[in-house]
User: Which sequence fits this backbone?
C-alpha cells in the first residue's frame, strides 16, 4: 500500500500590512500624547504681551479689544484677527502683531494723530484725534500749535469731518489757528469760524478748508488783522482802515 504524505501546515504569521497599521496607530497615539503634554505645559502659553506706540489708548483697552491674556494659548493667536480687532478702536489707525516663540507677543500700534483740543463738561482738556475720538491728555501733554474746539456737540457729524480735514492739512498751515467754532447756515451747514493767534477772524466751511487754507496764510502773512471770508469767493476786510487810523491820529494831535 503506497504511503501518502501529509502536507505540512504553514504557521500563521501576521501580515506586513497589519504590522504597519499597528505601528501607525501607536505612532499617532504617541504624537497625540506629546501634543496633550505640550499644550498643557507653560511652553505653549502666552507669557508676555508688549504694546508699542500706544500714547492715547490704555493697555487695558488694548488687551480687552485684542482678547489676549497672559496664560492664553500662544498658538491659538491669529495675528490678522488681533490686528483687525485693534483697528476697530477709534484711537488705533494701524496695528501689527509679531509672535515670538516661546510665549511673547509684540504689537506695534499707530494711533490717529491729535488735530485739536477741547474742554469736556468737567472742564478737563481732551485731545481730539483725526478719527473724532476724544482722549484725556493728563499723561500725554499738549501741543500748543493745535486749535481748541469750542461749542461743538459730541454727536455733531461735522465735528468728525472737521478733524479729518485738519489731519489732511500740514501743521505749518494750521499752527496759527487758536479756536474753531461751529457757525452753520442754510447755505453752508458745515460753516465754521476760526480765530487765529495773529488776531484774524475767519469764516469758511469744513468742506472748503483744505483748499482755502493757503489763501488764509497768505493774508495773515501780508495784511493787518481783519475779517477773512473763504466761501464761494474770498475776501478780506481789515478791522481798522487807514482812514480810521488817520482820524485817531488827528484826535490825538488835538
Assistant:
Amino acid at each position: 500500500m503506497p504511503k501518502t504524505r501529509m502536507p505540512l501546515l504553514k504557521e500563521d504569521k501576521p501580515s506586513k500590512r497589519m504590522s504597519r497599521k499597528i505601528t501607525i496607530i501607536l505612532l499617532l497615539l504617541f504624537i497625540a500624547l506629546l501634543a496633550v503634554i505640550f499644550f498643557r505645559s507653560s511652553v505653549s502659553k502666552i507669557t508676555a504681551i508688549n504694546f508699542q506706540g500706544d500714547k492715547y489708548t490704555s493697555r487695558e483697552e488694548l488687551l480687552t479689544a485684542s482678547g489676549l491674556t497672559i496664560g492664553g494659548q500662544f498658538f491659538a493667536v491669529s495675528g490678522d484677527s488681533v490686528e483687525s480687532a485693534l483697528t476697530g478702536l477709534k484711537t488705533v489707525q494701524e496695528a501689527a502683531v509679531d509672535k515670538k516663540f516661546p510665549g511673547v507677543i509684540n504689537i506695534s500700534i499707530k494711533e490717529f494723530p491729535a488735530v485739536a483740543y477741547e474742554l469736556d463738561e468737567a472742564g478737563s482738556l481732551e485731545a481730539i484725534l483725526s478719527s473724532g475720538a476724544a482722549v484725556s491728555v493728563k499723561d500725554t501733554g499738549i501741543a500748543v500749535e493745535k486749535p481748541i474746539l469750542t461749542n461743538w456737540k459730541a454727536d455733531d457729524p461735522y465735528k468728525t469731518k472737521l478733524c479729518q480735514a485738519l489731519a489732511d492739512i500740514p501743521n505749518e498751515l494750521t499752527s496759527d489757528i487758536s479756536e474753531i467754532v461751529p457757525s452753520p447756515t442754510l447755505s453752508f451747514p458745515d460753516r465754521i469760524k476760526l480765530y487765529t493767534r495773529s488776531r484774524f477772524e475767519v469764516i469758511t466751511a469744513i468742506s472748503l478748508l483744505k483748499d482755502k487754507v493757503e489763501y488764509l496764510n497768505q493774508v495773515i502773512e501780508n495784511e493787518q488783522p481783519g475779517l477773512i471770508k473763504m466761501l464761494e469767493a474770498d475776501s478780506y476786510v481789515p478791522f481798522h482802515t487807514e482812514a480810521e487810523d488817520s482820524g485817531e491820529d488827528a484826535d490825538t494831535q488835538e
Summary: The first strand starts at residue 48 and ends at 52. Residues 92 and 111 are 4 Å apart (CA to CA). DSSP finds seven helices and twelve strands in the chain. The helical segments are 16-40, 59-66, 79-86, 157-167, 171-174, 206-222, 242-253.
